[in-house]
Amino acid sequence: MTANGWLQFAIYCIILLATVRPVGLYLATVLEGRRTWLHPILRPLERGIYKLAGVNAEHEMNWREYAFALLGFSAASMVLTYLIERLQAHLPWNPQNIVAVGPDLAWNTAASFTTNTNRQSYTPETTMSYLTQMAGLATHNFFSAAVGIVCAMALIRGIARKTAGTIGNFWVDTTRTLLYILLPACVIYALLLVGQGVPQNFHAYTAAAPLEAPAQTQTIAQGPVASQEAIKMLGTNGGGFFNANSAHPYENPTPVSNFLEILSIFIIPAGLTYTLGRVTGSPGHGWAVLAAMFILFVAGFTTVYWAEAHPYELVRGAAQTGSATAPAGNMEGKEVRFGVSQSALFATITTDASCGAVNNVHDSLTPLGGMVVLTNIMLGEVVFGGVGAGLYGILIFVVLSVFIAGLMVGRTPEYLGKKIESYDVKMSMLYVLIFPMIILSLTAVFVLSPKMGLTALTNTGPHGLTEILYAFTSAVGNNGSAFAGLSANTWAYNVALGWAMLGGRFLMVIPVLALAGNLAQKKSVPPSPGTFPVNTGLFTVLLTGVILILGALTFFPALSLGPILEHLLLKSGQVF
Asked: Is residue 242 assigned to a domain?
């Protein structure tokens, strides 16, 4: 751990916090349908889309209509992506003549990109054509990100509205999110990445002769990288154009591009906390929620940075002594150009958010470093989280925190003027319970199945358990990162992980929308002396505690058999 590493972290935090208000204000303006500076250009296009699609922009939906539209849109786009993958050998923009994707892998990938997971059980540059990368995968990066944002906004409306039976119009919300937020931002972002050296072309791969062996050739992959990279990071998607993801010099060539990427992962989730405060009329509540996220983020980074900068005698690649220019620590699986601090920061951010992009190999993290990034996902990815998904996830914990506070004082809990009743708590607990149930059940099945689950492992012992646990946690949490020691491109893993990703997205979105609908129809009650304020430091502490108790402790037995046991074995000098 060095002063330079902490300085870089401090600069990142300052710039991130400076973006919260302007980004949140713009998001609120767009999602509330107010005029923006882009309206003269994009409003005619927006109207044309409604007319072409037969959408009545004035019609508002109840939560069931909203959920039905969301599920139908996601299902249709998933089928389209599956067909593009299966037919890519016969479609244009395939200069490498890449063959069709196999049925189980195509299913897994279509489910992955539909759910904003973007887990990749394949090598992109040798498996997907340019058309598949753009029309199948990059478009899903936009669609799935927009779905997360509009679900968060639906819940915010449910909190803010009084005696209303509707929570908005899914088609209008999605169209505005795409036109006014994601597309303009990604155009600017992609141009910035091109300026940093990220390719954007349709050329065939280049065959180059290495200087060391001129008689041989090396294939250098390229393509429309910058356009996919922009929405990959801004939409917290994470699926790379190349197998090395953001460790590849074409996806992440410079320190500037690395900073832009980690900033863009958090910029919308952080801004949505301000949107929450503004739309509900309680700015202090938005800042209190942001503070809880920020505390968990700082704690996670500090632990990962310490673990990776701490030398392990038995870890190959760990420098036992260091200097100012070459600090000690675990460099296995990390790029020298990023070093320990930026690798630890990237790993923390990408697992706090449901992003999954990586600039280092998570499987090569020390046991404690790997445990923290795994725990980040196990918390429900509410530490900023994915675009939209992080906010509606933490609002579930807010409802439970308010409920617990009400039990402490013996009063009916209230949240921003709404009484929290049994239906609200049931929907919140359903959301919380679905997550560990899917993860732990599927992990147990594959750990107990030598042929189906264990043959794909490179490692044995507690690290092997962690690899399987990480795979299903990442899938259900819609994160997409992986412990690469698990070769998950098998029929069993592709099918199971595909269903896990769908369950982690849509089985959890439905209770969120049901909660939004129920809150929207409630009357508002004035605060009383017994009302627990949700805009104070005390509330932030309570919310942080509830997240840790319901999130981390649920998985403690599994963590104790995986990374914790691995850490203790390494410290005791045992090798397995």
From this structure: yes
CA distance 35 to 509: 29
Task: Decide: 398 and 415 in contact? Cβ < 8 Å.
Answer: yes
pLDDT tens, residue by residue, 275-330 = 999 999 999 999 999 999 999 999 999 999 998 887 666 555 555 555 655 666 78
* Domain-located, residue 59: yes
Nearest partner of 443 among 464, 461, 459, judged by Cα: 464
288 backbone φψ class: left, alpha, beta (φ>0; ψ -120 to 50): alpha
| Alpha-carbon span 541 to 545, nearest angstrom | 6
Distance (Å, rounded) from C-alpha 189 to C-alpha 1?
31
CB neighbourhood size of 452 (10 A): 15
The answer as to whether 108 is a domain residue is: yes
The range of the structural domain enclosing residue 271 comes to 20-205+222-281
pTM of the predicted model, to two decimals?
A: 0.92
> What does pLDDT average to over the chain?
90
Contact in structure between 417 and 514 (CB atoms under 8 Å): no
**What is the spatial distance between Cα 93 and Cα 138, in angstroms, rounded to a whole number?**
15
Cβ-contact 301, 9 below 8 angstroms:
yes
AA letter at 188? I
- Kindly state the DSSP code that residue 329 receives in the 8-state scheme: E
Q: What's the rounded Cα separation, in Å, for the pair 564 and 249?
A: 34
Host H or E run for residue 126: helix 124-127
* Domain count across the chain: 1
C-alpha of 344 from chain center: 17
Find the mean pLDDT for residues 83-91: 93
Say if 139 falls within a structural domain.
Answer: yes
Q: Which two tokens stand for residue 282?
A: 């309680």
3-state secondary structure of 218: strand
Neighbours of 570 (CB within 10 A): 18
CA 360 vs. chain centroid, Å, equals: 17
CA distance 539 to 287: 11
Structure confidence at residue 327 (pLDDT): 65
The model's pLDDT over 423-472, given as tens digits with 9 standing for 90+, comes to 999 999 999 999 999 999 999 999 998 888 888 888 888 999 999 999 99
Cα 291 to Cα 10, 20, 159, 285, 500: the distances in Å are 16, 12, 20, 10, 31
Burial category of 404 from C-beta neighbours within 10 Å (exposed 0-12, middle 13-18, buried 19 and up): middle
Beta bridge partners of 218: 208
Closest listed residue to residue 185, CA positions, set 26, 8, 316, 340:
26
Alpha carbon distance 48, 363 (integer Å)? 48
